[in-house]
Design a protein that fits this description.
The chain is α/β, with parallel strands linked by helices and about 250 residues long. It has one domain (about 10-250): Alpha/Beta hydrolase fold, catalytic domain (Rossmann fold, 3-Layer(aba) Sandwich), CATH 3.40.50.1820. About 35% of the residues lie in helices and about 20% in strands. The chain contains six helices and nine strands, in the order E-E-H-E-E-E-H-E-H-E-E-H-E-H-H. Residues about 1-5, about 85-90 and about 235-245 have low confidence and may be disordered.
């Protein structure tokens, strides 16, 4: 499961015993690393014991610090990671670098799916802030890549022109988020509703731009209780066909 040269090897968790039945891929935010999402990985591992959880690194960026003696900027050994030109954006990836990240990541997600013997419907992408934007963009460009996308404090960079045909989208947001405005996320939900898309929004009152435990636990609730709209439509279609068949039998 090697990565392309531009990425560090990801952090990977596999089930202690048995075969994985789910794949979660978690994308960190700007200026962070997979460590930022360790709490989310722990919540998911506790809820889904047979899940494989992968936490990729973004592009490396060496942190700068001022030498206390010389008063000059110097590169430290501490590395931060991002999904684009971090000095120009906070909540969304840069379009050019995003394409580089996406092309490599999609290939890697496919390889992890193949390694675990799992389909797109058994895969969930999740991310915080820029990582959420990246997960949403991956799902927009590759519709069968994942069955669920969990967006924490993030939003689309480019709104989809068509509803994701096979993906259930879950947005988790703080009411006081000043980085990614809640009003923009609500507008996205309205747009998806017009497209007859399948999406939910959970709002934590009083929270800002943060990955909070309450939202992480709500994600598990959504994953375990929310039935995809397409499943309802298929069930209703089946009931309708059965009803029509019973009616015809009664008339014969």
């Amino acid at each position: 499961m090697s990565l392309l040269p531009m990425f560090r090897e990801p952090v990977v968790y596999v089930p202690r015993t048995g075969k994985a039945n789910l794949l979660f891929v978690l994308f960190h935010g700007n200026g962070a690393s997979p460590v930022q999402l360790f709490p989310l990985a722990d919540v998911l591992k506790q809820a889904f014991a047979q899940a494989m959880v992968v936490l990729p690194y973004g592009f490396p960026e060496h942190a700068q610090a001022t030498d206390p003696v010389l008063g000059q900027e110097k590169t430290t050994g501490i590395q931060r990671y991002h999904w684009g030109a971090s000095e120009h954006w906070v909540s969304a990836p840069d379009a050019t670098l995003q394409q580089g990240a996406l092309s490599g990541l999609v290939d890697q997600i496919r390889s992890w799916q193949q390694y675990a013997g799992l389909s797109g419907q058994q895969t969930a992408l999740a991310g915080f802030s820029q990582g959420a934007a990246l997960a949403l963009e991956a799902g927009r460009q590759v519709p069968d890549l994942a069955g669920r996308i969990l967006a924490f404090s993030g939003n689309y960079v480019v709104l989809p022109e068509q509803a994701p045909p096979a993906t259930l989208l879950h947005f988790f947001h703080g009411s006081n988020d000043s980085v990614v405005q809640l009003s923009h996320v609500k507008a996205t939900l309205d747009h998806l509703s017009e497209l007859q898309g399948d999406a939910t929004l959970d709002i934590a009152q009083g929270l800002g731009h943060e990955l909070h435990q309450s939202l992480m636990h709500q994600a598990v609730v959504r994953l375990t209780t929310t039935i995809p709209l397409r499943s309802w439509k298929e069930a209703l279609s089946g009931l309708s066909e059965q009803h029509q068949g019973d009616t015809l039998k009664g008339q014969s």
